[in-house]
Design a protein that fits this description.
3 domains, single chain, 5-stranded mixed barrel, 6-stranded mixed beta sheet, OB fold (Dihydrolipoamide Acetyltransferase, E2P), 43% strand, elongated, 12 strands
């Protein structure tokens, strides 16, 4: 075998390995991202009343007026604050207590454990329950018909979260797939500039 042929074969093998690496890396990253998304089974919105670092629990006053005690771990991520990245950080207490949050969790009842927490500032959270009767093509607005028969329009941002009952659908700006016409939902929202801005959608 000539040296020229050997060189061609080595170059071909190197090229194949490079292509394989280019394909496998994104797939691995996508798999890891999907794994992180699957971990959180549900989401809830409310105001943090208390953070107990000794017991590793927090008390969340939910938008429907219930106080829930939820566990957290050393790996529970906090987003939206500058002085902490984990709920277990000593500096997280001051920023979380009194703030409004969307909390992602796994488990039920006393076993609810926070996977991550989105700090959304201080807002007055409200609820609206009803049936989705429409959404614009761009997924920026959703219209819900409430029990009173009134139709209310909600603005959907890129940060809204959809709890479909079987897992979290994040980045629900593509509303067409996440919130379908005819779905029974609870909208967790705040009023901002005369608009009802939805933060969390829970399927009933």
């Amino acid at each position: 075998m000539s040296n020229r042929i050997r060189i061609y074969r080595v170059l071909a093998l190197a090229s194949s390995l490079a292509i394989a690496g280019a394909v496998v890396a994104p797939l691995a990253e996508a798999s890891q991202a999907q794994g992180r998304a699957v971990r959180a089974e549900h989401a809830v919105a409310g105001d943090v009343k208390k953070v107990d670092h000794t017991a590793k629990t927090l008390v969340l006053h939910t938008a429907d007026g219930i106080d829930e005690t939820i566990k957290f771990t050393g790996r529970t991520v906090v987003r939206g604050i500058k002085d902490a990245t984990r709920a277990a950080d000593a500096t997280a207490k001051a920023s979380l207590e009194g703030a409004s949050v969307v909390l992602y969790y796994t488990g039920e009842g006393v076993d609810k454990t926070a996977i991550s927490i989105d700090h959304i500032g201080k807002r007055t959270l409200k609820l609206a329950k009803g049936t989705v009767v429409g959404a614009d093509a761009a997924g920026k607005f959703v219209v819900v018909k409430t029990a009173t028969g009134a139709e209310e329009t909600f603005e959907v941002t890129k940060d809204v979260v959809v709890d479909g009952g079987r897992g979290i659908e994040d980045a629900a700006v593509e509303t067409g797939g996440a919130i379908k016409k005819g779905a029974e939902v609870t909208m967790h929202y705040s009023e901002e500039g005369g608009k009802k801005v939805v933060l969390l959608v829970k399927h009933l």
